[in-house]
């Protein structure tokens, strides 16, 4: 029986979890440069849809994603932009959401990690799907704030 992820609503095949898919994506991105270019987006989408970001991190990631997607930055430019927000010496807030943080409005995500997982064996298609995932996630995020 297919199950749904309690956090992002993805329909999961038996025995599969979003976390396991995420780890599979990360190991590909760490070892294969064709996949690495979308690494920032993969992490951002997963963290957003699984409510892992603190309120401050959400604000930051939302504006970073918007800049990236509007200006169509390259992977290199994005890394520079991302580095500015994640250098802990200049940042006083926490990235990870605390257990006692108020819950976020539920969003019925129209695209989840399982959609991207269909394309895991084709780097070009995978990158397109991750970008699409980022576009969709940002658009849905903005529609509730
Ligand atoms: Zn999930």
Name its key features.
binds zinc ion, single chain, 7 helices, 145 residues, 59% helix, two-stranded antiparallel ribbon, mainly alpha
Describe this structure in words.
A two-stranded antiparallel ribbon has the order 1-2. The N and C termini lie far apart (about 35 Å). A hairpin with a 6-residue loop joins β1 and β2 (about 10). It contains 7 helices and 2 strands; from the N terminus they run ββααααααα. The relative contact order is 0.18. The mean pLDDT is about 90. It has one domain. By secondary structure, the chain is mostly helical. Zinc ion binds near residues 5 and 7.
Q: Work out the count of structural domains.
A: 1
Radius of gyration: 15 Å
Structural class: mainly alpha
Uncertain regions: pLDDT < 50 for 5+ in a row? Answer: none
Distinct compounds present: zinc ion
Proportion in helices: 55-70%
SSE sequence, one letter per element: EEHHHHHHH
> Could you describe the largest sheet, including whether it forms a barrel?
2 strands, antiparallel
- Straight-line distance between termini: 35 Å
Strand order of the largest sheet: 1-2
Strand content: under 5%
Q: How many strand segments?
A: 2
Any idea what the shape is? Answer: globular
Instruction: Write down the overall mean pLDDT.
Output: 89
Q: Supply the number of helical segments.
A: 7
């Amino acid at each position: 029986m297919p199950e749904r992820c309690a956090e992002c609503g993805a329909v999961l095949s038996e025995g599969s979890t979003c976390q396991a898919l995420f780890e599979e994506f990360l190991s590909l991105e760490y070892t294969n440069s064709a996949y690495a270019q979308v690494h920032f987006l993969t992490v951002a989408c997963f963290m957003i849809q699984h409510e892992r970001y603190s309120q401050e991190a959400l604000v930051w990631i939302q504006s970073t994603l918007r800049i990236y997607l509007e200006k169509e930055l390259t992977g290199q430019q994005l890394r520079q932009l991302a580095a500015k927000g994640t250098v802990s010496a200049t940042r006083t807030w926490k990235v990870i959401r605390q257990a006692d943080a108020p819950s976020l409005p539920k969003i019925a995500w129209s695209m989840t990690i399982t959609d991207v997982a269909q394309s895991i064996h084709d780097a070009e298609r995978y990158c397109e799907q991750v970008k699409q995932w980022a576009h969709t996630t940002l658009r849905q995020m903005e529609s509730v704030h």
